[in-house]
Amino acid sequence: MGHGGGGKLGNELVEHLFLPAFRNPALENLGDAAVLDLGSGRLAMSTDSFVVQPLFFPGGSIGALAVNGTVNDLAVSGADPRFLSASFILEEGFPLAQLAAVVDAMATAAVTAGVRIVTGDTKVVERGHGDGCYINTAGVGLLRPGIQVGPDRARPGDVVLVSGTMGDHGMAIMSVREGLEFESQIRSDCAALNGMIAEVLDEAGLAIHAMRDPTRGGLASTLNEIASSSNVGVEIDEMSMPVRLEVQSACELLGLDPVYVANEGKAVFFVAPEAARRVLELLRSHPLGREAAQIGKVTAGHPRMLVARTAMGANRVIPTQIGEQLPRIC
Amino acid sequence: MKYLTEFRNGEIARSMAREIAQIATRPWKIMEVCGGQTHSIIRNGIDQMLPAGIEMIHGPGCPVCVTPLELIDKALAIAAQPGVIFCSFGDMLRVPGTDADLFQIKGAGGDVRVVYSPLDAVDLAAKNPDKQVVFFGVGFETTAPANAMSVHVAKRRNLMNFSVLVSHVLVPPAIAAIMSSPGNRVQAFLLAGHVCSVMGYWEYPPLAERFKVPLVVTGFEPLDLLDGIRRAVIQLEAGRHEVENAYERVVTFDGNSAAQKLLSEVFEVTDRAWRGIGVIPKSGWRLSEAYRSFDAEERFHITGIHTEESPLCHSGDVLRGAIKPAECPAFGKECTPRHPLGATMVSSEGACAAYYNYGRFISAEDLAGAGSALSGAANG
Known about the structure:
The complex is a heterodimer.
Chain A: H1 9-22, H2 25-28, E1 34-37, E2 42-50, E3 56-57, E4 60-61, H3 62-75, E5 79-91, H4 96-113, E6 116-125, E7 133-143, E8 159-162, H5 168-176, H6 194-204, E9 208-212, H7 218-230, E10 233-237, H8 245-254, E11 268-271, H9 276-284, E12 293-299, E13 306-309, E14 315-317
Parallel strand pairs in A: 5-6, 10-13
Antiparallel strand pairs in A: 1-2, 2-7, 3-4, 5-7, 8-11, 8-12, 9-11, 10-12, 13-14
Chain B: H1 10-23, E1 28-34, H2 35-44, H3 46-49, E2 54-61, H4 63-66, H5 69-79, E3 84-88, H6 102-107, E4 111-114, H7 118-127, E5 132-139, H8 144-156, E6 162-169, H9 171-180, E7 188-192, H10 193-199, H11 205-211, E8 215-218, H12 222-238, E9 243-245, H13 257-266, E10 267-274, E11 278-287, H14 296-300, H15 315-319, H16 351-357, H17 364-368
Parallel strand pairs in B: 1-2, 1-7, 3-4, 3-5, 5-6, 7-8, 8-9
Antiparallel strand pairs in B: 6-11, 10-11
């Protein structure tokens, strides 16, 4: 697909700068976590930095996000997350009470996710050089024996499942961001997915070909990435994508498309067709997957492209977003 | 929430498309004026549902797209100044000026902020008395009342550190310009529903009469658009040329009179340059004498702007409806949303971006192998 003009901003940085500089087999997979073979077993390792503003938002905080984000990256790689590191970059003058609240949220999230924060670091930068508080977490987990999931393993015929409604986190943040405040009941879906994913893998591990948590860039970016890595096409039915009414309304108001809006407590599964129904039922029986839905499938046609069927019965290509979505004028 | 899904019913849409196919006995070319309608038509594939003879021509109603390059360069120059907080609607940020865009100005240290309401910019001015707060007030009649209100409120609160860079444009003169242009192909218009929610449609009967052209006030949802198209085709087939309201749940003949009163107080009609089209007489608004001191152009006196449009870009032809985006030689090659040459590729309402983002550059053959979920499309 020469017309696509290659990857988009973030991907280009990875492909043209980081990958050539650091190239090695563990990195090249570009999964959510690197898989490291230690001889005695396989370890997954992942890291993520958190710079969200505001630090506290409906349904979560930077602290909860920092734990759950890394836990989820490990979990969708097929690993059981175990240990996390936590590094803080604090702006001079950041109120101690706020830091305590952030740390408290991290501790609670770690307990809920069943991981331990075992090492950390703190740096303070001059006032004006940071946005209050940045957090980096890294995590390791043990890969389940026999599980082979990866963004390059989706194959034609696979069924695409999502574990719940799309766009909750992004719109929750948007609703409290300076300059865009609007009244809403939208809460972030920020949650640790390792428990739900473990149940799926226990039950149907070999049928799961790829998993991802559709965070920044939303479902569209995740599906495009997997389509690209696996060299397959992905088709989704727009009508079957679960979206909360209030999220849809807020998106309409701002001229945004929920397919591009971030999630922090949802997973996408590429599942062998014969297991799809069982996995869907399993997801729906879990508290975090009650609104799980089958949204599409993998095709051999239009490789590396995501195509949606609209309510009108027409098709539209959903490309990877360039940078952030911007609210429209009218 | 009402009105979110009622007007997106695929089954009703298909039956309306069939009705249009039955009514139409020959080809007709209909222009939707508003970029929001273009976006909706392409996103939902309305054009694919229409009978082959009914061609939708995409109009110039994308405010970001028609804002002149010179004004964007002025915005960039103002935003780059120290002590300025430059506020804009989001989709203005990526519009390329001659050398940069607002994102790059922001990256280089300029204080550029996205606001959703111009009144938020007024609040910023109140909170930052030591800064100059400038709002980039672009748009058609739809965004004008809020922009007018911001200036009105700033004056009442005596916030002399607030100003607006105004580039307001008006729909009726644009329709007159399109109908008068040599080689015009447009035979009917879908009027922009949200513009009419503010202005009503009392301005339009003289236009319908003068150019013998049907004008149908139309909304933005799939069923709204199909109803507008249906009514336009019925008029064309009957040889009528009337102003008709297909968006009655929102639009009245008189419009919002409180908003119109404010607009006539804050703004006055002026000649305005449209990017890609040129100067259209009496086609815009500028701040009236009483509010002139809030005009950012007067306050900042930016001079020495030298603008240069890309020689490869045919966005003017696209905005006039002379060519479809994919007919531009640069489309999808030199010009993509990542590296836009013209504004129609930047704004999500721009016709080029709509075509690109929804894959209208992909040939039917490329999509043909797509499998069962894709059959049933492109059946016009």
